[in-house]
Design brief:
Elements (H helix, E strand, L loop, with lengths): L1 H31 L13 H6 L6 H13 L3 H4 L3 H20 L8 H39 L4 E6 L2 E6 L8 E5 L8 E11 L1 H4 L5 E4 L6 E2 L4 E11 L7 H9 L8 H30 L6 H11 L2 H20 L2 E3 L2 H7 L4 E5 H5 L5 E7 L5 H12 L5 H12 L13 E3 L7 E5 L5 E5 L1 H10 L6 H12 L2 E8 L2 E9 L6 H10 L3 E5 L4 H11 L3 E3 L4 H13 L4 E5 L5 H6 L2 E5 L4 H6 L2 E3 L7 H38 L17 H25 L8 H31 L4
Parallel strand pairs: 9-16, 9-18, 16-17, 18-19, 19-20
Antiparallel strand pairs: 1-2, 1-3, 3-7, 4-5, 4-6, 4-7, 8-20, 10-15, 11-12, 12-13, 13-14, 14-15
Length: 723
C-alpha cells in the first residue's frame, strides 16, 4: 500500500513539473510571441488535454488585455481588497516618481519609475487573469447567441396556424413543428413524437427521441426537428428560455462569489490589513535604527508580503470552475453549486431515465401451464394496439420477433380501455365478446378472483421470478381468466457500475430511488452497483430522505429528469436535472446535464474538488512565496545598521535596491505564469485526503518557498548589473 501511494505521489510530482513547464512556456509565448513546439509530456487530466490549445487564443487575449485596463477603475478593484491596496500603492509610487524628479530623499526618479511600472504590471496581470476567464465565457455566449437567432414559429390560434417570430411567443402559447423546422423556444411536447437534433446545444451529433406524456417531453429552443410532427406548449416567458439563462451564466452576469470564496477574500483582506500595520510601524523602527528607508521600499515590502498571487488569481479560479463545468456539458446556475459538488457525501439517482435507459422493453411471453402460446400472444397484441407507450410498442415488436405475422388493426367496433392509476390496467373489448386486460399482477388477480375464477399458481410463481430478476411483470387475462405474463426489463445504461465504483472511491454514497417494488429495486440496485435503494418511493419520500441526510450534516446531490423529481432536486444541495427531462425538473435543479448522463456527477464532483484544491494549492503557494520574499527584502534593508541580520541574508543579494527590485519583479511575473494553472485547475485524483495533502504541500508548499529563492536570485544577478 505504501509503495502504491509512493508511486502515485511520484506520478503527481512528475505531472506537476510537467504542468509548470507548460505554464511557463505558455506565458513566455504569450508575452514574447515565441513560436514554439515544446516537448510533449503526459498529463493525466482530461480537461487539460481538451483545453490545452485554447487558453491564449488571439481574440480572447486582445479582449482580456483591453479589460485589464478597464478593470483599473477603483469601483471595480475595490471588490478585490488585496489588489485594490496594490493599486493604491501604484498610485502613490506614481506620485513619488514625479516628486523625485525635483527632490532628494526618496531615491532616484528612474528607480522609482521602475517600481511604479512593476506595480502597475502586477495589477494588470491580476486583472488579465480575471479578464481572460471572463472572455472565454463571453466567447461561448457569442456562439450560443448564434443558436438563439430569431426563428419563425407556427403558432396555433383558434385551430389555425399563424407564423410569428420566436421573440413574440409567450408562456402557454402552442406551436407545431415538422421535419426540418427549428424549435423556436423552450416547451413541453403535448402531442406527437419526433427525432430531435440537439447538437447545437449539447454538441452531440446523435439525434434523440422526444415524445409527449413522459419524462422526455421537454424540447429546447434552437434545436432542430428531424422527423415526424409535434405540438409544443411554450414553457417560458420571452428572455427566460434555457438558452437565455445559459448565455447569462457563461457571461458571468449572474455569478456570485461562493461562501468559501468570500471567506478566503476576508482572510486575505485580514492579512493585508496586518501587513499595512507592519509596514507603517516599520518606518519608526527604521528611524530608530538610523536606517534610511524610502517610500518605494515600504510599498514594495508591503506588496511582496501580502498574498498578491492568490489575490490576483482568486476571481479567475471561481470563473474558471463554472467554465470547466460548461465544457463538460453541464450548465451550472451558480459557482456555489460547483464548489458544493466537491464536498457531497450522498448522491440520489432516479432509476428510470437516469440509471436505466428509461423505456422498459418486453423481453418474453410466459403463457400459463397448458395455455396456447398463439392465443396468449394474440391477446398480448390486441391489448397493446392502442397502447402508445414505449412498453406497449415493445410488446408488438416482441410478438413480431416471435413469429406473429397477423398483426393488424383491432376489429371494427372494439372499445379500448385506457390505463388509469386506479385500475392499473388497460385492454380491449372486441365485438365478439372478448374482454382482454393487461396490467399489474395484483390488479389482474383481483379481476380474476372477483369473477370467481382461480388465479393460476404457476403465473404467480412466474411473477415472483420476474420481479426477483429485476423485471416488471404484466399479467394478461381474457374474459376474467389469466392467460400468462409478459416480462418487461429495464435496460441499465452501459458502464454505469464502473462509474459508481469511482464515486465510491471518492467517498460518495449512491442511492437509487424508484417507484418499483422492493424485489425489482433490489435487483436493479445490485446490477447497477449502487450502495443503497429506496423502493416504492413517492416524491415526498425522496425529499424526506434528503432532509434526513442533511439533518446529519451531510451534503446531498440529487439527479433526476421528471416532474416528480422536482421537489427533491430543489431540496438537494446539488440538484442536477437531465436536459431531456421536464421543464419543472430543470427549473428546480441548480445544474442541468446536457448529455443526460447520470454518472456525469463524477465529472461534476471532480470539477468541484478541483476548484477547491486549486484555490487551496495557490493559497499555499502564495503564502509560501511571502516567506521567501521576506528573507529577500528585510535583511537587505537593515543589514547595514543591524549586522546581526547577516545570518538571515541567505540569498546574499547584490544591494538593498536590487533586492527590492528583484523581489517585486518576481512578485509581478508569478501571477501571469500561474494563469494557466488557475484556468485549468489542479489535477484531482481520488487518492485519499492525506496523500492529497502531502502532495500539495510538497509541490506547492515547498515549491512555493524554493521557487522565489531561485527566481529572485536569478533576477538579482541581472538587476545587479543595472542598479
Amino acid at each position: 500500500m505504501e509503495n502504491r501511494e509512493r508511486r502515485i505521489e511520484n506520478r503527481e510530482q512528475a505531472g506537476g513539473i510537467s504542468f509548470l513547464y507548460h505554464s511557463l512556456f505558455s506565458i513566455l509565448h504569450f508575452l514574447f510571441s515565441i513560436p514554439h513546439s515544446p516537448p510533449q509530456f503526459s498529463i493525466s487530466n482530461k480537461q487539460m488535454k481538451t483545453q490545452s490549445n485554447k487558453l491564449f487564443e488571439a481574440a480572447l487575449v486582445q479582449t482580456a488585455l483591453k479589460q485589464s485596463f478597464v478593470k483599473l477603475d477603483p469601483r471595480v478593484m475595490i471588490k478585490n481588497p488585496v489588489m485594490f491596496t496594490v493599486e493604491i500603492g501604484t498610485l502613490i509610487m506614481a506620485y513619488v516618481t514625479v516628486y523625485s524628479f525635483g527632490h532628494t530623499g526618496q531615491g532616484s526618479a528612474t528607480y522609482n519609475f521602475f517600481i511604479f511600472l512593476i506595480l502597475l504590471l502586477t495589477v494588470l496581470f491580476a486583472n488579465f487573469a480575471e479578464a481572460i476567464a471572463e472572455a472565454r465565457g463571453k466567447a461561448q455566449a457569442d456562439s450560443l447567441r448564434k443558436t438563439r437567432e430569431e426563428t419563425p414559429a407556427k403558432v396555433l390560434v383558434n385551430g389555425r396556424i399563424e407564423t410569428r417570430s420566436s421573440s413574440q411567443l409567450k408562456k402557454g402559447d402552442m406551436f407545431v413543428c415538422e421535419a426540418g423546422d427549428t424549435i423556436p423556444t423552450d416547451g413541453e411536447i403535448i402531442e406527437g413524437i419526433a427525432t430531435i437534433d440537439e447538437s447545437a446545444i449539447t454538441g452531440e451529433s446523435a439525434p434523440v427521441i422526444r415524445e409527449s406524456g413522459g419524462d422526455k417531453s421537454s424540447v429546447t429552443g434552437g434545436t432542430k426537428v428531424l422527423s415526424d410532427h409535434i405540438k409544443v406548449q411554450v414553457s417560458t416567458q420571452p428572455g427566460e428560455s434555457f438558452l437565455d439563462k445559459m448565455i447569462a451564466l457563461v457571461e458571468g452576469a449572474s455569478r456570485q462569489k461562493t461562501p468559501n470564496e468570500i471567506a478566503l477574500t476576508i482572510l486575505l483582506a485580514s492579512f493585508t490589513l496586518v501587513f499595512i500595520i507592519v509596514c507603517v510601524t516599520l518606518k519608526p523602527f527604521a528611524d530608530y535604527a538610523n536606517t534610511p528607508i524610502t517610500i518605494a521600499a515600504l510599498i514594495s515590502l508591503f506588496v511582496c508580503l501580502i498574498p498578491t498571487t492568490i489575490g490576483g488569481l482568486l476571481s479567475a479560479i471561481g470563473i474558471a470552475g463554472m467554465d470547466r463545468a460548461l465544457r463538460a456539458n453541464v450548465i451550472t446556475k451558480s459557482g456555489k453549486a460547483v464548489e458544493t459538488a466537491g464536498d457531497i457525501d450522498v448522491l440520489l439517482l432516479d432509476k428510470t431515465g437516469t440509471i436505466t435507459i428509461g423505456n422498459r422493453k418486453a423481453t418474453n411471453f410466459y403463457p400459463t401451464t397448458g395455455g396456447i402460446i398463439k392465443k396468449f400472444t394474440d391477446a398480448c397484441v390486441l391489448s397493446s394496439l392502442s397502447d402508445d407507450t414505449p412498453e406497449g410498442k415493445s410488446i408488438i415488436e416482441l410478438a413480431k420477433l416471435k413469429g406473429e405475422t397477423n398483426i393488424s388493426a383491432a376489429p371494427a367496433g372494439s372499445a379500448f380501455i385506457r390505463f388509469t392509476a386506479e385500475t392499473r390496467s388497460s385492454g380491449i373489448d372486441t365485438p365478439d365478446g372478448r374482454r382482454i386486460r393487461k396490467g399489474a399482477f395484483d390488479s389482474i388477480r383481483n379481476i380474476v378472483q372477483k369473477a370467481g375464477n382461480v388465479f393460476p399458481a404457476d403465473i404467480e410463481e412466474q411473477v415472483k421470478k420476474i420481479s426477483s430478476n429485476g423485471g416488471t411483470p404484466l399479467v394478461v387475462s381474457e374474459n376474467e381468466k389469466a392467460l400468462g405474463v409478459i416480462e418487461l426489463q429495464d435496460i441499465i445504461k452501459p458502464g454505469i457500475s464502473e462509474r459508481f465504483d469511482r464515486l465510491r472511491k471518492m467517498g460518495v454514497k449512491t442511492v437509487m430511488v424508484t417507484g418499483d417494488n422492493p424485489l425489482t429495486a433490489k435487483y436493479i440496485a445490485q446490477k447497477a452497483g449502487v450502495d443503497d435503494f429506496i423502493a416504492e418511493a413517492k416524491p415526498e419520500d425522496k425529499m424526506n430522505y434528503i432532509k434526513d441526510e442533511q439533518a446529519e450534516g451531510k451534503l446531498v446531490a440529487m439527479m433526476g429528469d421528471g416532474t416528480n423529481d422536482a421537489p427533491a432536486l430543489a431540496q438537494a444541495d446539488v440538484g442536477v436535472a437531465m436536459n431531456s427531462g421536464t421543464q419543472a425538473a430543470k427549473e428546480a435543479g441548480n445544474m442541468v446535464d446536457l448529455d443526460n448522463d447520470p454518472t456525469k456527477l463524477i465529472e461534476i464532483v471532480e470539477i468541484g474538488k478541483q476548484l477547491l484544491i486549486t484555490r487551496g494549492t495557490l493559497t499555499t503557494f502564495s503564502i509560501a512565496n511571502d516567506v521567501a520574499k521576506y528573507f529577500a527584502i528585510v535583511p537587505a534593508l537593515f543589514i547595514a545598521s543591524i549586522p546581526a541580520l547577516q545570518s538571515l541574508n541567505i540569498m546574499n543579494l547584490h544591494s538593498p535596491e536590487s533586492a527590492i527590485m528583484s523581489a517585486i519583479i518576481f512578485n509581478a511575473i508569478i501571477i501571469p505564469i500561474l494563469i494557466p494553472l488557475a484556468l485549468r485547475g489542479v489535477a484531482y485524483k481520488p487518492i485519499g485526503a492525506s496523500a492529497l495533502l502531502r502532495r500539495n504541500l510538497f509541490i506547492y508548499g515547498i515549491g512555493g518557498v524554493i521557487a522565489p529563492f531561485i527566481g529572485i536570485k536569478l533576477i538579482d544577478l541581472v538587476v545587479g548589473l543595472i542598479v
